[in-house]
What we know:
Low-confidence stretches: none
Number of helices: 5
Strand content: 15-25%
Number of strands: 9
Distance between the termini: 52 Å
Shape: elongated
Amino acid sequence: MTFLELCQRLRQEVGAAGTGPATVTGQNGEMQRLIGWIQQAWREIQTEQQEWRFAWAEGEVELSAGFRDYDLPDDFDHWVEDTLRIGDRPVRALDYPDFRRLHREPANEQAIGSVCVTPDNKLRLSSLPAAEVTLSFEYFRTPQELTDNGDVPRMPPRYHLLIVYRAMMQYGLYENAPEVVQQGNSNASRLMGDMMMSELPPMTFAGALA
């Protein structure tokens, strides 16, 4: 479902007066509130977990000889730490405080052993590249914003109604309609449980104690 379709479905589910919305821009009053609740619901769903499968992506940064700091992808949130590579050689990802303590100045060796993300969201290398190379990695993206009519949430389509159900809860609270809140919460809980089963990494358990 597109952003516009989600807003239209929300209006239908809560029985709001009129038709539409015909567009997500230029609205006011109740239509604008419905649109805002869909946007809010999608942001909240994305931030409830850090490693949704639908937020996963692959990235590359082209490294140039003599340069230490680089831009990361615009939607970068955090690494999958054991996936950083230059060619077939692994690179270690450090937290910024540890990196600063160990690599305040770039090392002289040509091989890049470690990287970090600086507080201003830049990629920093432990040493300066001697030649042009490519750093590849997997990462999780920042939350997606719905802004245009045709924007489609990243989540699998079978879970799109979760956004509508979560937005219904906000509508019900605003309108003092507990039956709408209850219906939205019941449907949202079921879909969220299903999505967590399919869209989060499998749980791992520590081995038995000796």
